[in-house]
Write a structure and sequence with these properties.
Length: 282
């Protein structure tokens, strides 16, 4: 009983093979026509636009100089932030998009993944891409989303450090201004000829002390400026390149061609099998 179905299947397969070989031009014609239709389909539906922004997550360090590994420096954090419904809703509103317009249209990729001993000290670079039908809104959404990523990763921690350095720098500058004025007064007093030698000696000593204090403050100012520059340019997350919308095909031509050719080949083979008897009778 079980041998009969197997034999029938073998006969059917042999018949189908003979039909395809005999009417070989039908599958070939279907492949060519399918490929042409697939390419034409790739032009259907207009064009989409995409915009990409490059983000550096920064490299924050502790007060002791050690690199800090945290949520803010994890590239996966960017994916979590950009795919969250709350973040996308906020960006859609600011970019003038409809609700849900960004769903499925945001992609994140890490650029230039470091390996080896330098991986731990490499600042992650993130490519953030948004696609859509309006170039202006797509670019706006990309930049807004990039700014949101910066604001939710390393920027808050480093921002506190920057504010501290700026406060120290302001205080140092005020002290330098005060000492400069004091030195001018002392220099005029020393220049007066009617002062006694002891008074002149006291004034000269005060001038020396003021100049020494001025030198220390200048050193402190230089160090603070270097720390501030490092925090702003290296430690903090920031947008490296802003977004610019570019035209992108709504459908991929190579994939459309392959899918169309495959479907055409299958349809041609089915037609050949189904029409074998008719062509033979004719």
């Amino acid at each position: 009983m079980s041998a009969e179905p197997d034999a029938e299947r073998e006969v059917d397969l042999a018949r189908w093979r003979r039909a395809v070989v005999a009417l070989w031009w039908l599958p070939v014609a279907g492949l060519v026509i399918g490929a042409v239709v697939g390419v034409l389909f790739s032009f259907r539906g207009g064009s989409n636009y995409k915009a990409t922004a490059l983000i550096s997550l920064g490299q924050p360090v502790s007060p002791g100089g050690a690199v800090i590994a945290s949520f803010g420096t994890n590239p996966r954090a960017v994916s979590q932030i950009t795919s969250s419904a709350s973040a996308q809703a906020e960006v859609e509103q600011k970019a003038g998009m409809g609700s849900g317009a960004l769903r499925g249209h945001v992609s994140v990729a890490q650029v230039g993944t470091a390996t080896g001993s330098g991986a731990a000290r490499a600042a992650p670079l993130i490519s953030l891409t948004v696609t859509g039908v309006s170039p202006t809104k797509v670019a706006k959404a990309t930049d807004t989303l990039a700014d949101l990523v910066v604001g939710r990763t390393t920027a808050p921690y480093v921002g506190t450090k920057i504010a501290t350095y700026e406060s120290v720098l302001k205080t140092t500058n005020n002290q330098l201004t005060s000492i400069t004025k004091r030195l001018a007064v002392l220099d005029r007093a020393v220049a007066q000829s009617h002062l006694s030698a002891i008074d002149q000696l006291v004034l000269v000593s005060q001038v020396d002390n003021a100049e020494q204090r001025q030198g220390n403050l200048l050193d402190q100012k230089a160090t603070t400026q270097q720390q501030l520059a490092f925090a702003q340019e290296v430690e903090s997350a920031k947008v490296i390149t802003t977004a610019k919308a570019e035209k992108a095909s709504a459908h991929s031509k190579p994939s459309s061609l392959l899918v169309g050719a495959f479907i055409g080949l299958i349809v041609g083979a089915i037609v050949a099998i189904a029409g074998e008897g008719r062509f033979r009778t004719a």
